[in-house]
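As the work plan foresaw, our protein records have gained a structure token line. A representative record is set out beneath this paragraph:
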Amino acid sequence: MALYFANGTGQRLWVAFAYYDPGCGEVNQNFRKQGWWQIDILQPGTGFLAWDVDLRTVNRFAYFYVEAADGSSWHGAGSAWLSVTDAIFNQCALDGAGNNYRWVDFIDLDFTWADPGWDTVVIIWHWDGKNRITFAQHKERGPDGEDATVEPIAPDVVS
């Protein structure tokens, strides 16, 4: 099981990600934040591989935030604010992001619905004037030659 980000927007995207890291300690709620991953326009396959671990064994939650080349963003509902900077960063969640940081609202991922043997795919797209996120599961072609499968696993998020 792994986590992928797929870009269906028609423009370049950048993703910041926060995940469980006990090394960051309780003062940081045991979370680390990293950014920025550049995700180019949708290409064949499942997208950009962000985290190649069994998501169910790490922690129930992770978080992400997305910005596009045109300045638009895909953000949360107001409950996961972290500081970021335009430069690359890799630090504990509540540590300052350096000079010129800003606060952004991350979208939460809950891996309790993750099925064994399936990858989680976050599909970032824009439709009907709204930024949208679709969460899906992806399973590669099986050992018996059955087709690869992608299926939705949660309602779309609109930001």
